[in-house]
Amino acid sequence: MPYEHILYAIDGPVLTITLNRPDKLNAFTPRMQHELIDAFDRADADDSVRAIIVTGAGRAFCAGADLASGSGTFDDSQGDRAHSLEEHRDGGGQVTLRIYDCKKPVIAAINGPAVGVGITMTLPMDIRIASWKARMGFVFARRGIVPEACSSWFLPRIVGVEQAAEWFYTGRIFSAEEAREGRLVSRLVAPENLLSDARKLALEIAENTSALSVALSRQLLWKMLGADHPMEAHKVDSKCIYWMGRSPDAHEGVSSFLEKREPQFKLRPSEDMPSFYPWWSPRKFS
Predict the structure, then answer these.
(1) How far, in Å, CA of 128 to CA of 106, rounded?
(2) With 60 as the cut, is the pLDDT of residue 3 above it?
(3) Neighbours of 285 (CB within 10 A)
(4) CA 210/CA 226 separation, integer angstroms
(5) How much of the chain exceeds pLDDT 70, in percent?
(6) Which of 33, 81, 87, 144 has its CA 20 to 30 A from that of 271?
(7) Per-residue pLDDT averaged across 20-40, rounded?
(8) In this structure, which CATH number among 1.10.3720.10, 3.40.50.720, 1.10.12.10, 3.20.20.140 belongs to the domain 210-286?
(9) CATH of domain 6-205
């Protein structure tokens, strides 16, 4: 797929996906939705990609949905995009569900305003780093709609129900410092250091770890958020540590440590996932 609303750039083991409508503050469009899904499909299939950074071009990360179509922006019951109540699928949710299932760690480098879907799309990303100039807002109630992109599932798990409720119900724009205090972002950095800091973290992952270990760890973290008892984690942990313990990567990890050298891990997430993966039943929209 040729990209018009995003940039896809690989530098060594790090992929940077840039939302690229700077003249529109990178406002989200159906085209951007499909390009992002394609980009994550492509990244998962490419074993040279070990970590992904998502950022925005220009002064914004993403200003939310493009409102150029006016008051009917969110009305999908009419016109070319008409669907029934049961058929309609939220575009932002399709993006976040794709990121949720990604096998690679994803770092959001929030360089400026991130509003509406511009912030909810970051919730299934693993780590959010923000410029101190960034502003965020779950503004849905101020637009007469509701939180989307599965954010009613993601946000309370990240920041807690009370903080999520305050941001959802007020719909206000808040500072990067408030986002850090509320644990929405892990750190604030100077604008000029944002991408370099994100890349430093991505390289720390890429250069020191087994790609398969990270892929399985990512799914353990996310999928266990819905488990009803730690026994469910114990069952899957046991399978994963058994399978990985027999693998060439585990032998290499121990040998390289004992021999005081850099590890050379070989297993590839595109082809070498264990036979019991996925251990969950994939959910279908119905």
Answers:
(1) 9
(2) yes
(3) 10
(4) 26
(5) 93
(6) 33
(7) 97
(8) 1.10.12.10
(9) 3.90.226.10
